[in-house]
Amino acid sequence: MDVANLASQLNAETILPEGIVLTTLLLVLIVDLISGRKSAKWTPYVAIIGLLAAVAALALQWDNPTPLGFLGGFNSDPLSLVFRGVIALSTAVTVLMSVRYVEQSGTSLAEFIAILMTATLGGMFLAGANELVTVFVALETLSISSYLLTGYMKRDTRSNEAALKYLLIGASSSAVFLYGISLLYGLSGGQTQLDEIAVTIANSPDSQAIGLAIALVFTITGIAFKISAVPFHQWTPDVYEGSPTPVVAFLSVGSKAAGFAIAIRLLVTAFGSMTEQWHFVFTALAILSMVLGNVVALAQTSMKRMLAYSSIAQAGFVTIGLLAGTDAGYASMMFYLMVYLFMNLGAFTCVILFSLRTGTDRISEYAGLYQKDPLLTLGLSICLLSLGGIPPLAGFFGKIYLFWAGWQAGLYGLVLLGLVTSVVSIYYYIRVVKMMVVKEPQEMSDVVRDYPEIRWNLPGMRPLQVGLVVALIFTSVAGILSNPLFTLANDAVIKSPVLQSATTEAPTLASTLAAPDL
Fold first, then answer.
1. Is residue 477 packed enough to be buried (19+ CB in 10 Å), middle (13-18) or exposed (0-12)?
2. Which distant-in-sequence residues (6+ apart) come within 8 Å of 42 by Cβ?
3. What pLDDT, on the 0 to 100 scale, is given for residue 502?
């Protein structure tokens, strides 16, 4: 094989966005080694510029006629482009909200950003992985970096405890997932590429049925852990409560998006011939996640734990799109994750701001906040109402698209359950809003009564303010102006061969339901 032929088969330009992220990561580390703590004034902005450049590179690859790279081990199709963009954007917003938080804790900001961008690299490679070894290496890169981020505040015993729990449960999950894909490797006759595995399994004898069922269950276990689906959610509330809040924000969006990306690729490709079986399992996961996530959230007294159970419930909602198995279903998944990025990160930005000023995240301590901090109250209220699906915010249109896709696909029970549990979720979101806005002055909490003077000129506060305003604007207008985003998601489905070979015939959501476009 000559060099030119090898270069064409490697097609390294498919990982140009990841190359930009890696270069930015190395630049942050080198500058930090040279200039020390002084680099904290501008390394966050270098990281954000690098991440936005990676998103731009992803956009330029949209109509790439040769999306396969590295001998078929990486697929840069529009499906992966959307998920990689969501992961990169979630990291950029996370960096904005991290500056003040990390500096106030007395730890190194550059090291935090470097580990965060390593996790981003793992998530982006996972979203485009088309081969079993690439899948596992990318998954472990994301997981190990997440463990380090969870325990980054080493002086905080809660952070140490959260990291230990996450490490132990995550390692077990990775071992189970690895066993599942190793079974898949053996049963497919030594194939590692997903499309070749799919062909082999489709023609496999009946004697392999039990082995394939075990491989499917073990693989789904690893995926369910990554997306925090019940009953593999046990780590989520404790890790969310004990981890640094910016880390929780990234895990709730970036890590979850990577999990859904590999779920789609693995299930519709390698397990395409076992659609009925994995539909049954994911239906159970969706039901349990929507019910337990929303019901248990009602009893939470910590804002971070409430958002943890909220993220479990959101995973159940997104799974409806996966189970629909249609163009509309996959498009609604991607659309919902795009809007979920901003409304969830916006909520966590408000939690960070409140905890920086008061040192607590107890829901009861938010009483009367409107009278002391109107911007924070407005931002948190809009993000929570959007998560609950209140029109005309982005979350409402996201849920409408998901439920309509599920209804068209015949998932009537799941959609009705989703509607009922959405009503339940509105209660605990509005409870927080009511506490902030409606409380009389005499009912104001002691923490809010002693609320410090709002000073945006403190080091690291401007990025936090920018992140809040961006999330607030996007969450407010993305619902009303949702057509461009949904067109993007719909085009990604139509232009991804892996999804076109898996979708069933059904009317597309774009042709049936369209949000008003101003």
1. middle
2. none
3. 65
Q: 507 — phi, psi (to 5°)?
A: -60, 140
Helix, strand, coil percentages (3-state) for the chain, rounded to 5, are: 80, 0, 20
Alpha helices in 389-445 (DSSP H): 394-408, 412-437
Rounded CA-CA distance 252/344 in Å is 8
What b/e readout covers 93-119, taking b as 16+ CB neighbours within 10 angstroms?
Answer: bbbbbbbbbbbebeebbbebbbbbbbb
Token pair, residue 266, equals: 């693995």
Cα–Cα nearest to 45, from 92, 89, 87: 92
CB 503 within 8 A of CB 326: yes
Q: Provide CB contacts within 8 A for 175, sequence distance 6+.
A: none
Per the document, the length of the chain is: 518
Beta carbons within 8 Å of 489's beta carbon, 6+ residues apart? 82, 330, 331, 332, 333, 334, 335, 338
- How far is residue 398 CA from its own chain's centroid? 15
- Helix extents (H) in 409-507: 412-437, 446-449, 461-477, 483-494, 497-500
Terminal Cα-to-Cα distance of the chain (whole angstroms)? 55
Question: 10 Å Cβ neighbour count for 513?
Answer: 18
User: Which residues make beta-bridge pairs with 131?
Assistant: 193
Say which residues have a Cβ less than 8 Å from residue 435's Cβ, sequence separation at least 6.
363, 364, 366, 367
**Model confidence pTM above 0.90:** yes
Distance between CA atoms of 286 and 314, rounded to whole angstroms? 9
Token couple for 195: 């499309």
> What would the pLDDT profile of 209-250 be if each residue is shown by its tens digit?
888 899 999 999 999 999 989 888 888 888 988 888 899 999
Residue 119 DSSP symbol: H
